[in-house]
Amino acid sequence: xxxLQQVREKGQKVAEAIATVLQAEVEIIDxxxxxxxxxxxxxxDVGSKLLRGFINKYVLKTGKHVFISEAGFHEICQSCPxxxxxxxxxxxxxxxxxxxxxxxxxxxxxxxxxxxxxxLARADSLIEFIGRMADFxxxxxxxxxxxxxxxxxxxxLEALINSxxxxxxxxxxxxxxxxxxxxxxxxxxIKKSYILxxxxxxxxxxxxxxxxxxDGKGFTSREVYFKFNQQNLHLVCTAKPIxxxxxxxxxxxxxFRDFSETQKFAYEILSQQQHALTFxxxxxxxxxxxxxxxxxxxxxxxxxxxxxxGESGTGKELFARAIHAASTRAHKPFVAINCGAIPETLLExxxxxxxxxxxxxxxxxxxxxxxxxxxxxxLFLDEISNMSLYLQAKLLRVLQERQIERVxxxxxIPIDIRIVAATNQDLQELVQKGRFREDLFYRLSVIPLxxxxxxxxxxxxxxxxxxxxxxxxxxxxxxxEGFTREALDLCLNYPWPGNVRxxxxxxxxxxxxxxxxxxxLDSLPPRMKEHFSKENLxxxxxxxxxxVAPLQELEKEAIRRALHQFGWxxxxxxxxxxxxxxxxxxxYRKIQKYQLHPETGAK
Length: 603
Hints:
Layout (H helix, E strand, L loop, with lengths): L7 H15 L2 E6 L4 E4 L15 H9 L3 E3 L21 E9 L2 E10 L2 H9 L1 H41 L3 E6 L4 E4 L1 H7 L11 H5 L4 H7 L3 E10 L2 E13 L5 E10 H15 L13 H14 L5 E4 L6 H10 L8 E5 L5 H9 L17 H4 L4 E5 L6 H13 L1 E3 L6 E3 L3 E6 L3 H6 L5 H7 L2 E4 L10 H15 L6 E2 L1 H9 L5 H15 L4 E2 L6 H18 L7 H16 L3 H11 L3 H10 L10
Parallel strand pairs: 11-16, 11-17, 12-13, 13-16, 18-19
Antiparallel strand pairs: 1-2, 1-5, 3-4, 4-5, 6-7, 6-10, 8-9, 9-10, 14-15
C-alpha cells in the first residue's frame, strides 16, 4: 500500500470538496500512477492505474508543478499517442511532498471549454490553492503514519509489559491507573478491567506510587507489605517517575515481584556461583577420615542440626557443603557466615536482617538476613563459639520456633532451614565457664561430627600434596612433576598445626618459588624448616647427656627470637606467627603468657 493509499477516504472527500467549490474535476495519483481519488469522469477509475500519465510522471520525477493550458499541445504531451486529441482540455498537476519526498500528485482538470476558461482566468490563484491542498493531504498522510506508529508502539509496549514476569502498574499525573499487566492480574488476583482508569488510592493506597509522583524520586527493590482482597502480600517494588522533555512528572511506573520468588531467583544465582562440593571432593583414604565421611553420608539425608568439631584448617566447611549437597535440600541455597569474622554489633543484622529505619545507616527498604536467604536450604554457622550469649538466645529461639523477626520489626517470618554449626573449641568447656548456653549446645550437637587433624591421618598427606601440586601447577602455569625425596620426607614428618589449610598454602608457596620441575627443601616455607631445627636442638641436648630444657622454655625462646627478627609491630607479629606456624591470635596469647616485652625481649 502506497503512502497516499492510507488516506484514500480523506483524499476522496477533499477531491469532492475542491471539485464542488472550483467547478473543476480533481484527481489524486500515487507514485505507482494509481488513482487514489477522483471526481467526475475519472471517479469510476479510482483504484486503477493511468495508462499513460506523461504529465504525472514528469511531476513525480522533477517535483515541480505543471500548468497545461491546452492539453495535448504542451511539449511534455508531444510523445503521448493522444497528442493533439487529448480528452483533457486543461490541467494543473501539483506534487504532494512529505519530508522532502514526492509521494504523489493532485491534479485540477478541465474536461470542457467552460471549465478550461474558468481555469485560465484564475490560473495563479488555482495553482496556489491546489498547492495548499497538496500540503493538506500531505499533513493527513503524516498524521495517519504517526498515529499508526503510535498504535504499533502502544501494541509493542503492551506486548512487552505483558511478557515480563513482574507485575507492572503505571499511573498518570492525576494518579489514575493507565497500565496493569497480566502478571499484575495474577499477583493481585484481579482483572485489569476493574482497575484501569481508577484512582490508585481506591485499590492500592498502601503502594508508594503517590510518594514518587509527589517528590519525583524513584526507588529500587523496596519491600512492601499490605493487605489486598483478603490476602497478605509481601512484595519487592521498584518505582520510577515518568518525566516529560521539560522534566515535569507525568506519571509513575512500578514493577512488583513476590518476595518469595525474588528469594528463589537469588538462590538460583547463588547456587550457580557456588561449586557443588560433594564427599568425593574430600581427599583421604585413612581409616579416620573414611569413618567421618561415612558418618556424614548417613546423616546428610536428615534435617537434624549438625555440629562439626575440628581444629582450624581441617575442612569443616567442606564437610558442611558435602552434607548439604547430599541432602534433600541440595537444590536450595547453602549460606555460610563466619560468626568470628563479623563484629557482634553487625552480626545480628547479618543473621536476622533489618527493617528500614531500624538503625542509623539502615538500607532503604530494609534487608533480608542470612537466615532468610537460606530459607529452604542450609545455614552454615562457622566459629559458633564466638557468638555472644544474646545472639545465642535468639538462635535458640529460631531452632525452637522456626521463625524470625528482623531487627526493628515485630513481623514474624516463618523459616525452614537446616543448621550446620562448626567450632574449633570445646563447647562443653565453654558451657562450664558460662560463655556458651547449655540449652543451645544440646540443640546444636544433636549429631556431632569430629574431623581428625591432619597429624592423625598422615597416610593422607601424600594424596593431598599431589592433588594440590597438580592444581597449583595448572593455575600458575608451571610444570612441577612432584617432590624431591627430602622435601617429601619433611612434609610427611611435619606436624601441620594449620592442618589441610596450611598444607594447601605450603604447596602454593612452594610452586610459586620453585624454578625446577620438582619441589625442593629450599622452596618450602621457612616455618617448616625451622620446626625441624628446633627438634634437632632438643635431640642434640638429649644425645649429649645435658639437661633437657622444658618445652615451654623452647617455645618462649623461639617466640622471642622470631619477634626479635621480624619486629614488634602488627606486621612483625603476623610474620613471626607465620614463621612459627601458629596463628596471630596464638602469638598474642603466648606473648602475654610469657610476659615478653620489646625492651628486654623477656621478663
